[in-house]
Specification:
59% of the residues lie in helices and 5% in strands. With 234 residues, the protein is mainly α.
Length: 234
């Protein structure tokens, strides 16, 4: 069923409100377009930010918040984290980002849930782990950050997510370097291949020049990565 078909059906029923989760791909325009299409029904609409395939996708949510701060936005830490144990870590984001609440998956026996069992918490877990955090978040949101600070928190959340992706990429690269080292040892090839490294430097510095990164910074970063890669191959 398309969003327009849903909108047409809403006109036929006494719907009190609509929650719209973000698309699974990080597309703020698509999410906002869906919201605005359903707003035309006259029924109150709220956004649910669930992340994208268990990644926060803070940039997408931030863009929607900037363009339509009047739309209530709730956090879905269950889908965002993909695991029940990580839900409490995301709750403080409600206050720091100025969100309007949370939608959390709760099941009295998660192991018997028909879907998403690993990300569902029990009522007891909610009481023991989330009630205090939620009450603190509510209090903090009343006394806290002005809009300027909330904007900084959004930007820092974007940085944190980018850093997570960066370090994960570096770790994956080092794992590949280790496998390359194993191949080189098996075939009697030296870990250091100057021509190959020079090719990488030329390609990456050319890319950097077109993307506003300083040449010296890129070379320094590449050298650090290359030196660690060589150590992984020894």
């Amino acid at each position: 069923m398309t969003v327009q078909e849903i909108a047409d059906e809403i006109d036929k029923h006494a719907i009190k409100g609509i929650f719209i989760k973000n698309p699974v791909n990080a597309d703020s325009d698509l999410w906002l377009g869906n919201i605005e299409r359903l707003e035309k029904t006259g029924v109150p609409v709220a956004a649910i930010h669930r992340g994208c395939n268990h990644h926060p996708c803070w940039y997408m949510a931030h863009q929607v918040r900037l363009r339509r701060p009047d739309i209530p936005m709730l956090l879905d830490p269950s889908h965002m984290s993909g695991k029940a144990s990580a839900v409490p870590q995301l709750i403080p984001k409600i206050a720091s980002l100025g969100l309007d609440g949370a939608m959390i998956e709760v099941h009295y026996k998660p192991e018997e849930a028909l879907s998403d069992s690993v990300q569902q918490i029990t009522p007891t877990f909610r009481r023991d782990n989330l009630d205090v955090i939620l009450s603190q978040s509510s209090l903090t949101s009343e006394i806290c950050p002005a809009d300027e600070m909330k904007e900084l928190n959004w930007l820092r959340s974007e940085i944190d997510e980018l850093d997570d992706n960066l370090w994960e990429t570096i770790a994956n690269r080092m794992n590949v370097s280790k496998r390359i080292g194993e191949w080189k040892k098996a075939h009697g090839v030296s870990p250091l291949q100057p021509e190959r490294y020079q090719q990488i430097v030329e390609q990456r510095t050319e890319w950097a020049a077109h993307n506003g990164l300083e040449h010296g910074f890129v070379v320094q970063l590449l050298n650090a990565i290359h030196e660690q890669s060589l150590r992984m191959q020894e």
